[in-house]
Amino acid sequence: MILKMAWKNMLRYKRRSLITASAVAFGVVFTVLFDALIYGIANETDINLLNYECSGVKFFAKGYFEKIEELPIDYLIEKKDVELITNYLNSEKIPCTPELASECEIFFNEDYFEASGSITGALIGIDPIKTKSVYKLHESIRSGTWLEKNADEPYCSGVVVGSWIADDMNAQLGYYITVQCKGRGGFTQTMDVPIVGILHCLDTTINSNYIFMDINYLDEMLEMDGAVTAIDAGLGSRFNVDQNIEKLKKDLQETQLLSKTNAEFKTWREINEDSMNIQSFYTLVTDILMLFMFVIAAVGISNTMLMSVIERKNEIAMLKAMGYSSGYIKRLFMCEGVSIGIVGCILGFAVACILNIPMSTVGINIGGLLDDVDMGFRINNIVRSAWDPVGFVKVTAGALITAGIAAIIPTVSIVKKEIADIFKN
Q: For 137-160, what is each residue's pLDDT tens digit?
């Protein structure tokens, strides 16, 4: 009964109700699209982190993780520990690859390039074969080949460079660059190596900072004696990686494997804590925008209901005279406000869904922004939104609760008055 009356009262002032519902719809559209965009970017960041940087967990020598930003060469997992850990992972059918990471300086000169210069980057030594089961780097070669050795060679002595580095140098396949980095013990090593491949993946951090070489070649050149800076273990996609990490953590505790080594392991979320914090920050921004939009909608609904209360004060007095309680009258106006909110949500979601279809399939090209701005996300030039059911529920619930509360406020003062006072005023 009360819902039917509220709906009819809303339809008595069609234009006013439609304008108010449109304001709610605008807030819903803006909030839903922004939430969908942030949700899509966060999802893509997680996928790219797992596919190109950290596929689940990494084993480090103790003390390395605290200085990971410096890519130190002083904290190493020794050969015997590498064999112990990799043998265990292989027995559990967990794909893994050793990794050797170091800061480096990349020099290029006029013998091959248009000008001489240098670029600072991150040198990553990996096993070209084992890496294929852990990462998707080999699938992202823009030109040339992955780290492939000839049949008569013990390793590949070339280098694969990120596309942004290659573009900055105007590099071409076959050009030689000089890579300078620290070897074991702190000595400086320089290596003249040919560019065998240019890598362009969905992770712009890889494209702009990383070069890759065969870990077997680096083991010899840097005198590592089989030691590595990390062991990367692939534990699935973002849908099951955290579950698999918990299982691995439990298994390692039961076997006490790490207590037999000088190694510890960190999860992909711990390693990429800065990226996770940025995602949390943008989620907070979304919630703040949602609150801001709800405040705007609340003001509109409150004004609409205030005008309705003033115009219908005689009806309110008659309802009180007929024995209806103040609570009933408040609920009547609340249902009327919620009805306006429902109409606004339906309109808003309809428009948002239509607009989100091309945003989630075609995406938005922000390539020009990425050249100068680091937003902290691991994304390519094309960003796509995603469908966030939880976000949709939050927007709907927030809009309807706001509408109900905003509708009650104008009725509080008038229902407290005596019937005679209402008629007199």
A: 999 999 999 998 877 788 888 999
Cβ atoms 232, 58 nearer than 8 A: yes
Residues 235-269: tens digit of each pLDDT: 988 889 999 999 999 998 888 888 888 899 899 98
Q: pLDDT by residue (tens digit) across 399-425?
A: 777 777 776 776 666 666 666 665 666
Q: What pTM was computed for the model?
A: 0.78
Q: How far apart are CA 398 and CA 396, in angstroms?
A: 5
* CB-count burial class (<10 Å; 0-12, 13-18, 19+) for 130: middle
Residues 6+ positions from 351 with CB-CB distance below 8 Å: 25, 29
The answer for residues whose C-beta is within 8 angstroms of residue 14's C-beta and 6 or more apart is none
Whole-angstrom CA distances from 407 to 332, 394, 402 are 9, 20, 8
> Residue 89 is encoded by which pair of tokens?
């992972």
